[in-house]
Write a structure and sequence with these properties.
The protein has helices at residues 2-19, 63-68, 84-99, 115-120, 147-158; strands at 74-79, 105-110, 128-133, 136-142. Helix 3 (84-99) links the parallel strand 1 (74-79) and strand 2 (105-110). Helix content is 36%, strand content 16%. It has a 4-stranded mixed beta sheet with strand order 2-1-3-4. The chain has one domain: Glutaredoxin. By secondary structure, the chain is α+β, with helices and mostly antiparallel strands.
C-alpha cells in the first residue's frame, strides 16, 4: 500500500511539473486565476472564468448527509493540497458546481484532512472523482481532465443534458 501511495505521489509530482513548465527548467509559480470584476458577468455563457459559486467542501463528519443522503446526484472531487493536478482541477470543479447548480451537487474532499473518507473509498491517486446517486457510488475517474471531459462524464452518468 505504501508503495502504491509513493508511486501515486510521484506521478502527481511529474504531471504537476509538466503542467507548470517542464521537469528540468525553472518555472514561475502558477498565477492565480483573475477574479471576475463587476464588468464580467459570471452568468455570461462566453465567460470561462471560475464563478463565484465555489464547490463546497464536505468532510468525514458531513459526507453521509451531504452526499449519500442527497436528493440530487453528486460529483465528489477527492484531492490533496500538495497535488498539482488537483490544484489545476480546482477552478474547473468550481465552474462545474456553478454550471450544474440545481441538477447535480458538487463537493470537494481534502483527503489529508479527511482520512476516514480516504480509507473508506480507497483513494490512492489524486485527483479522484466519484459519482453518487441515491446513496450509491455510480462511477469513479482518476486524474486531471479538461472541463468538457468531466462534464461529459457527468452528463453520460446522470443524463443531465
Amino acid at each position: 500500500m505504501i508503495k502504491d501511495m509513493v508511486i501515486a505521489f510521484l506521478v502527481c509530482i511529474i504531471i504537476g511539473a509538466m503542467l507548470n513548465g517542464g521537469l528540468f527548467g525553472a518555472s514561475a509559480p502558477p498565477t492565480p486565476a483573475p477574479t471576475p470584476t463587476t464588468e464580467q458577468s459570471t452568468t455570461d455563457p462566453g465567460n470561462t472564468e471560475a464563478s463565484s459559486t465555489a464547490a463546497p467542501e464536505t468532510s468525514d463528519a458531513n459526507f453521509d448527509q451531504d452526499v449519500l443522503q442527497s436528493q440530487l446526484p453528486v460529483l465528489v472531487d477527492f484531492s490533496a493540497p500538495w497535488c498539482a493536478p488537483c490544484r489545476e482541477m480546482g477552478p474547473i470543479v468550481d465552474q462545474l458546481a456553478h454550471d450544474y447548480e440545481g441538477k447535480v451537487k458538487v463537493y470537494k474532499v481534502d483527503t489529508d484532512q479527511n482520512p476516514l473518507l480516504k480509507e473508506k473509498y480507497q483513494i490512492q491517486a489524486w485527483p479522484t472523482f466519484m459519482l453518487f446517486k441515491d446513496g450509491k457510488q455510480q462511477g469513479q475517474y482518476t486524474g486531471a481532465m479538461p472541463k468538457d471531459s468531466l462534464a461529459s462524464v457527468i452528463d453520460n452518468q446522470f443524463q443531465t443534458r
